């Protein structure tokens, strides 16, 4: 009987198998779209079944008796997709949705987009392509990125300063002013998006509490084109940038090359206050620092070649060269007694000159193994060479002493070389995605300090104040991560293991620091999307922040006769635990986070009353922790009017051991706010304007308490002559309100400094596009034999 029933049902079972149809819905950027409505209609245009795509954009149709149906795919913000289907065909559907404001040019879709924040399971993606802020440079774009703040030229993500900056997922071996200069000379038109990764997945190296990945555009236009640009900046003094970018694409070859030259005078105002209760004196210094740099060079070169339809090769070079930056600082200091009367004074003249050169080369091979898996091999080398020479003369006029002059010379040189090689494997299907790989890196640094001072009117080399510091670090890593997407849920978890072998050698006095250790860094992510597109997320990640190589150098680098900087070769790496809860809905993005840091390393200062010195020292404090709430919302008031609100409220605590041997706590509630409104002033979207306001309520860093600051800015840009010419006006720090006070006050420590980095001013920029600026003769690319074999 069972056999008969099976025999009778067999044709139905066979037909049911033919009715199973799978499909994937993506947009024109090949991004898979989840929670998309997929409807099926019969010949009478009646709805017979409706589905929603899963987290990977996929859907599966089963159980329909009709053979000919109409497919209708709808998603807000996209054009409706319709297609008549024959369900006897088992071929999977590849559905591409086009945005409502898309303009199709011969089978290629060009889309105008405003800044868009997209929440992914492991990161926040900020798209800036074709937006108002694309006329800015990469540094200014970072200031406008959600969860990112720039305070006194220091990048922070949700209050954390341990940031790893990458460009196209490749580490940038620059810090401080060098990184800022590089990004200031990187044009916003070359930036596609900024990825804010607060809990980086296992694929990324574990260094840094967060990763900022700058994704650069790829050249998609056939033929030759170029961009000629110039920019004039006026603050206290003038600066300028000139550049040329060139692009060429033909068949399988794509080449990009750019060169930017910057020049100008850089100004910084400061005031130092130190109170010595032991001697009942107050030392006050005025520092107006002016540096000239007329030769800053930024070069980029990238070539990509499609060896076959399965294999892509890419070679990238980037360089930054500043052969000469120089200036003379004139710093008068007045010393007051306990009756606030000037009893002594001295004056410091610091004549200095510095240079720096950075070269980075990477080579990458990407190979598709089959339809589900691929392999990437990346090799990377970077070299950073810098030197600084200073000639410091101090004229002293102390009470009870004859006037005298002290004179010393220092020569600092640093050479950093890094090599890394990484192999990544990826496999994925509709629900699962596996990533696994290994990486090896080697760093070698050499830092030399030569110190000479005057004796009997002649300069003498002082070996006891000079130093040679050599540092080597090997790092080997293995990682694996697994992602699973089922309906409304997305999961991802991973584990990274890193072995670090380091050796630091100091010449005088001789000191050897060797260490070898393994660390394990787990990550986990979960995301749930409701029927109404509410997205809830959770993530945890463990990270490590290794001290900068310059922080490990114990040599005393003198700023003047009474102040110097000193590193510590025994600095510990900081272990960081990040916990995040996220919510997103209709451009609302909310983050609730907690961060714990064990032995965070940072620069602190302390005064030494025995010799009236102020020492700036890199060290580990006991611990730090912070919890906070971040909010980002893009309000589209009108098609031509947009308002963005970005807020971060945080409670931050630092615990440090003071010079008195006691454990101190420094804590503060901090609000970091960025509110801006932008307008499109014409129908063709060629004329745009933005006004914004940034506010920072103050923070802490070890023993430092940092005062509040705010900044109002204005941006306007317009395109002319069929978009071939673009002009932009940017006004920053309109009310000159970005100065800050950084104070230390506990036990016998009582000092502060006021700092203003000369940000009030305006810039005018022009860009001229020439060559082929449009997509022509675009054709569908036929699959080659290699792809057919997959």
Automatic annotation (TrEMBL):
UniProt key word Membrane: yes
Subcellular location: Cell outer membrane
Gene3D superfamilies on file: TonB-dependent receptor, beta-barrel domain
Any Pfam family: OMP_b-brl_3
Record's keyword terms, sorted: Cell outer membrane, Membrane, Receptor
InterPro entries from the UniProt entry: Beta-barrel_TonB_sf, OMP_b-brl_3
SUPFAM superfamilies tied to this protein: Cna protein B-type domain (SSF49478), Porins (SSF56935)
Transferase is among the record's keywords: no
Primary location: membrane
Domain Outer membrane protein beta-barrel stretches: 370-767
Lineage top rank: taxon: Bacteria
Protein name: TonB-dependent receptor
Organism listed in the record: Chryseobacterium artocarpi
């Amino acid at each position: 009987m069972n056999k008969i029933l099976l025999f009778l049902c067999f044709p139905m079972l066979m037909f049911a198998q033919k009715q199973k149809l799978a499909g994937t819905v993506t947009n024109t950027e090949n991004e898979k779209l989840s929670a998309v409505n997929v409807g099926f209609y019969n010949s009478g245009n009646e709805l017979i079944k409706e589905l929603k795509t899963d987290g990977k954009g996929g859907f599966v149709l089963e159980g329909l008796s009709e053979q000919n149906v109409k497919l209708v795919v709808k998603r807000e913000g996209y054009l409706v997709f319709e297609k008549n289907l024959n369900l006897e065909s088992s071929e999977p559907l590849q559905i591409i949705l086009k945005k409502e404001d898309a303009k199709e040019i011969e089978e290629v879709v060009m889309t105008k987009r405003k800044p868009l924040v997209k929440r992914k399971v492991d990161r926040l993606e900020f798209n800036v392509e074709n937006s108002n802020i694309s006329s800015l440079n990469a540094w200014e774009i970072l200031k406008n990125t959600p969860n990112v703040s720039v305070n006194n030229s220091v990048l922070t993500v949700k209050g954390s300063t341990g940031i790893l900056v990458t460009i196209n997922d490749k580490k940038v071996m620059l810090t401080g002013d060098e990184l800022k200069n590089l990004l200031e000379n990187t044009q916003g038109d070359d930036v596609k998006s900024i990825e804010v990764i607060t809990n980086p997945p296992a694929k990324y190296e574990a260094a840094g509490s967060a990763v900022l990945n700058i994704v650069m555009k790829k050249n998609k236009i056939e033929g030759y084109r170029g961009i000629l640009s110039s920019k004039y900046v006026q603050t206290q003094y003038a600066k300028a940038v000139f550049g040329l970018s060139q692009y060429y694409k033909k068949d399988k070859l794509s080449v990009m090359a750019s060169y930017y030259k910057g020049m100008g005078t850089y100004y910084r105002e400061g005031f130092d206050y130190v109170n010595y209760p032991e001697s009942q004196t107050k030392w006050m210094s005025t520092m107006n620092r002016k540096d000239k740099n007329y030769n800053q060079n930024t070069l980029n070169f990238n070539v990509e070649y499609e060896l076959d339809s399965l294999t892509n090769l890419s070679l990238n070079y980037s360089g930054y060269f500043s052969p000469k930056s120089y200036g003379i600082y004139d710093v008068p200091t007045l010393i007051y007694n306990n009756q606030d009367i000037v009893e002594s004074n001295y004056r410091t003249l610091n004549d200095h000159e510095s240079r720096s050169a950075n070269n980075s080369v990477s080579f990458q091979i990407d190979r598709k193994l089959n339809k589900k898996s691929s392999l990437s091999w990346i090799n990377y080398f970077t070299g950073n060479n810098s030197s600084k020479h200073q000639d410091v003369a101090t004229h002293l006029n102390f009470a009870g002493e004859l006037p005298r002059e002290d004179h010393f010379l220092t020569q600092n040189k640093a050479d950093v070389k890094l090599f890394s090689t990484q192999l990544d494997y990826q496999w994925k299907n509709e629900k699962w995605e596996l990533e696994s790989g290994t990486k090896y890196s080697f760093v070698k640094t050499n830092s030399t300090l030569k110190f000479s001072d005057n004796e009997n009117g002649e300069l003498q080399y002082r070996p006891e104040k000079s130093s040679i510091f050599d540092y080597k670090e090997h790092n080997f890593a293995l990682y694996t991560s697994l992602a699973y997407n089922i309906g409304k849920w997305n999961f991802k978890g991973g584990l990274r293991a890193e072995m670090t072998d380091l050796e630091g050698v100091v010449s005088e006095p001789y000191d050897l620091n060797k260490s070898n250790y393994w660390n394990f860094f787990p990550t986990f992510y979960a995301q749930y999307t409701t029927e109404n597109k509410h997205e809830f997320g959770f993530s945890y990640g463990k990270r490590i922040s290794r001290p900068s190589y310059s922080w490990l150098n114990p040599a005393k680098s003198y700023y003047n006769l009474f102040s110097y900087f000193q590193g510590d070769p025994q600095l510990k790496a900081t272990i960081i635990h990040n916990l995040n809860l996220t919510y997103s809905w209709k451009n609302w993005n909310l983050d609730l986070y907690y961060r714990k840091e064990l032995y965070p390393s940072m620069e602190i200062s302390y005064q030494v009353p025995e010799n009236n010195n102020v020492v700036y020292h890199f060290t580990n404090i006991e611990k730090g922790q912070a919890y906070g709430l971040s909010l980002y919302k893009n309000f589209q008031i009108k098609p031509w009017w947009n308002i963005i609100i970005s807020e971060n409220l945080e409670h931050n605590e630092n615990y440090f051991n003071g010079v008195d041997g006691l454990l101190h706590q420094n804590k503060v509630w901090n609000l970091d706010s960025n509110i801006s409104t932008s307008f499109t002033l014409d129908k063709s979207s060629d004329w745009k304007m933005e006004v914004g306001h940034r506010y920072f309520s103050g923070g802490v860093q070890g023993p430092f308490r940092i005062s509040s600051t705010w900044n109002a800015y204005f941006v306007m840009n317009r395109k002319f002559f069929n978009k071939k010419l673009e002009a932009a006006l940017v006004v920053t720090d309109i009310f000159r309100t970005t100065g800050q006070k950084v104070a230390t006050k506990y036990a016998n420590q009582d000092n502060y400094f006021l700092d203003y980095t000369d940000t009030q001013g305006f810039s005018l920029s022009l860009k001229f596009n020439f060559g082929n600026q449009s997509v022509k003769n675009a054709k569908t690319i036929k699959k080659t034999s290699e792809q057919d074999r997959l």
